[in-house]
Amino acid sequence: MPNKYIVISLFYMQFSSTMSLKWVYLLISFVSVVHTDGAKQSCDDESLIKKNGKLSKEDIDDLISIDNQSQIKMCLILLGKDPLETGVAELLWRDLVKVYTTADDIPEDELQLLGWISRGIPAQEFMNLSLTDIETIASFGKWRNYSKEQVMSLKQAIEDQWSYKGPSDFSSYDLAALGQVLCVFNKSHIAAIKPIAYKGAAADISNLINCPEEIIREFALLATSRDAFGDPSGWTAIQIALIGCVIAGLDSVRDIQPDAFEGLAASSVQCLPNNVLQAMSIEQLSHLSLSAVNALTHAQRSSLDREQITAIQETAKTLGTVLNVGCCFTIRTTWSTVTLIVYLQLSTLIMSSKYNINNIIL
Q1: Which in 24, 189, 247, 328 has the greatest CB count within 10 A?
Q2: pLDDT (tens digit, 9 = 90+) per residue, 93-151?
Q3: Alpha carbon separation from 147 to 150, 153, 289, 347 (Å, rounded)
């Protein structure tokens, strides 16, 4: 915008006979404020949305502020949905704290929307947050690439909030909410968890990232308990889908039946250490799904021997061809898929019968 004093001078020269300098100045100041306010970036700005988390300091300036308080929730959702650079996350967090003066005054419903912005919370500040709602804990329990100091401080804050109960009292809901925080618990605390509680939260624990080996071993012991999933030799594809990366904690992954590996999700494959993949038999590898094979990283593939690589290449070739020709079933269709189809067919039949009976009654 042109220098407002120049504009005032020109404006005054034009209308000096009818308007005082004071009123011209006030008018131009008003126009300047309106122009600035109108040019301010909004959180629903399309160019901002397209950046997918690749934001600069200029992009986020004044987005979270007292002046923009009506848009804060929208901003938190948008800005926190994708991974952020630590510096950007720290700036956004500081801006949010300024809005409420202190961290402990930030409402929990807004803490739950932070997403990747939470990566910018200083470790010691987790102790000041309100964590009375389990949904708030669940939002912090997701993978956000926190530093060890951040996760340890978060764990301490949760333990202070849950001072009335220990790991043996954790429900499946508690475990699901804790998520990644479980990785910094002492292994004796994990061992104290009830197997039935673990079983209910297995799917939420199945893809813990960068969890210490000793913690995964403790979860594997819980998984093999009679009150959870029992002996690995009897695990099905559905159970493997629930257990996921925890299979890395077993004494021998080869105890699992080959066809059960059809249930191993792509997300679980990515968090399996190389030594577990190396320990898998050719038959087990050949039962991986196409999405699981495609999810293998370069490092994981490089750790396999020639026969193992051939097995997954054959899987990719065979299943890829099946998908390309649009075929619906293969000889390796899992029982879980057949069960699902039968269930849907029976459900349709039952609903149809009820509809006919209702018509007769009417």
Answers
A1: 247
A2: 999 999 999 999 999 999 999 999 999 999 999 999 999 999 999 999 999 999 999 99
A3: 5, 10, 34, 48
Report the largest interatomic distance among the alpha carbons of the chain, rounded to a whole angstrom. 97
Query: What are the backbone dihedrals phi and psi of residue 4, each rounded to the nearest 5 degrees, phi first?
Result: -65, -25
> Which phi and psi angles does 120 have, rounded to 5°?
-90, 5
Contact yes or no for 258/332 (Cβ under 8 A): no
Tokens of 186: 């002492």
Place of tokens 């470790």: 123
pTM: 0.76
On whether the CB atoms of residues 79 and 52 are closer than 8 A, the answer is no
Q: Give the count of beta carbons closer than 10 Å to the beta carbon of residue 185.
A: 19
Query: CA separation (Å) from 103 to 118, 131, 134, 329?
Result: 12, 12, 18, 55
C-alpha separations of 261 from 147, 233, 289, 348 in Å? 33, 12, 8, 30
DSSP 41: P
Chain CA centroid to CA 281, Å: 31
Both structure tokens of 177: 């909410």
Calculate the alpha carbon distances from 33 to 30, 133, 340 in Å: 5, 41, 62
